[in-house]
Amino acid sequence: MEFNWGDSIWELMLTKRPSDTHFSQSSTPGGKSPLVRDDDNTLNTHAVLFDGTKTALAIAGTCFALGVVVAPHVKSGLISLKSKLRRRAEKTGDAEVPLPLTVVAEVEPEQPDPPRLRAV
């Protein structure tokens, strides 16, 4: 993928460089140079540049295909989780409803009337 912008040509590239290295800082702000340096900032080699268009299209196609395959499973999992959470909320909601309290007074059993004395 290549396009002109102003007086420059922009091109999407895929780079390859050895592990434990980094690109040199470019004189253009925010840019990097294809020169590869080690941790001591010693020049090590040049990066190898590959066409990035095919790679970007392959990555985009793979992401799309994975999305088509995985999306129904993710949706199903989210629906299942939502119903589980709803059931849990209903269960805890029932337990949180205050029950009316019934006060039972302790009553002593009735005593029979004491015997009456009769006058003779």
Amino- and carboxy-terminal Cα gap: 132 Å
H-E string: EEEEEEEH
Could you list the spans in which at least 5 consecutive residues all have pLDDT below 50? none
What profile does the largest beta sheet have? 3 strands, antiparallel
Given the helix and strand composition, which structural class is it? alpha+beta
Fold and architecture overview:
With 120 residues, the protein is of the alpha+beta class. It is 37% helix and 25% strand. The protein has one helix at residues 52-95; strands spanning 2-5, 8-11, 13-16, 22-25, 32-37, 43-46, 48-51. It is rod-shaped, with a radius of gyration of 41 Å. The mean pLDDT is 79.
Q: What's the quick description here?
A:
By secondary structure, this protein is α+β, with helices and mostly antiparallel strands. It is 37% helix and 25% strand.
